[in-house]
Amino acid sequence: MDVQLENVDKQFGSVRAVKGLTLHVKDGDMVALLGPSGCGKTTTLFMLAGIYRPTKGTIRFGDKVVNHLRPQERKIGMVFQNYALYPHMSVFDNIAFPLSIQKKKAHEIRQRVHRVAELVQIEHLLKRKPGELSGGQQQRVSLARALVKEPALLLLDEPLSNLDASLRMRMRAEIRNIQQQLGITAIFVTHDQTEAMTMADKIALMKDGALMAYGEPMTLYDRPARLFVAQFLGSPSINVIPVVIQGGRALNARDRSVVTKLGPSVSFQHQRLVLAVRPEHIALTSPYEGDITGKVVLEEALGHEYLYTVDYGGDRLRVRAARPLRVEVHDLVGLKLDWEKVHWFDEQEERVDVHVIEKSAIGE
């Protein structure tokens, strides 16, 4: 089922929690509503669920406007952050509860509960109470209860936030696998960019109630349209160097040292820009071979990779390496930037295209 939000607002008193949100989720896609706390992502999910009504704008499921439909009229399944299981009921009865409310026949309830329990691998737990289950098992019960209604849209509110790291990794793969098996449209809320990047077909990144970006995860990562998008996606976060354009060069805004020479088409004279480059797109070299130089202040060995923190004129830059490098803390090093992967943003934090002439090409 396609889901469309058209210029949707949600106001709570004087607070405009969601601002002019327009979004199209294609049938069968899994979409992440991603952003920091207070960005409006949960409010958006609750409007889709029918818990909140939009102050203005239109929400469509397929061709049908659903603004005024109650949750039970929307053909949705909802997985809540705290699972919302009934502690006095068995797992079977928790899963069956929505069907009992709909007054389905007993044999149909049994068939559907066992079918969905098999799908989420909890058939052996049907006689237990929620208090006897682990966090991961409770999550599966909550998911089964949402799916037993055979919804056209699955909504999940921070579905993995209460799980430990190893279980979270396993469950995100399983939820994604189940969603793809069923071919169901799914929208989930998360503040965790790793969850969004690994589970979603598309990410809707929000800030202060507004949509900052919407697209496929790697498109947003590789070509962010805004500085906020570049900084929110990626761990460690993207490195940021404020520069000023002067005499066809990008100068470090702090000390006016040359970062790089720019092509003749540059039209940003005397403007301040932001140069942003991800840790994996910087290589440590000798001080004489780098585009810029800095001093190593920290080395972190993470097993599968190594992270180096370099002080560059007061800015701390992170460099990712696949293996340990022959450098020590306090060493002076060069930093070689992969200029094809460098991003530039103007004073409004919007992406701009800048042509760079590398130092090796100009003899600096």
TrEMBL record:
Gene Ontology BP term (one): carbohydrate transport
Source species, domain of life: Bacteria
Family matches, as InterPro entries: AAA+_ATPase, ABC_transporter-like_ATP-bd, ABC_transporter-like_CS, ABC_transpr_MalK-like, ABC_transpr_MalK/UgpC-like, Mo/tungstate-bd_C_term_dom, NA-bd_OB-fold, P-loop_NTPase
Keywords from the UniProt entry: ATP-binding, Nucleotide-binding, Transport
GO cellular component: ATP-binding cassette (ABC) transporter complex, substrate-binding subunit-containing
Domain ABC transporter: 3-233
Keyword Secreted in annotation: no
PROSITE patterns: ABC_TRANSPORTER_1, ABC_TRANSPORTER_2
Ribosomal protein keyword on record: no
Molecular function terms, GO-annotated: ABC-type transporter activity; ATP binding; ATP hydrolysis activity
One Pfam match: TOBE_2
PANTHER family: MALTODEXTRIN IMPORT ATP-BINDING PROTEIN MSMX (PTHR43875), OSMOPROTECTIVE COMPOUNDS UPTAKE ATP-BINDING PROTEIN GGTA (PTHR43875:SF1)
Protein name, UniProt field: ABC transporter domain-containing protein
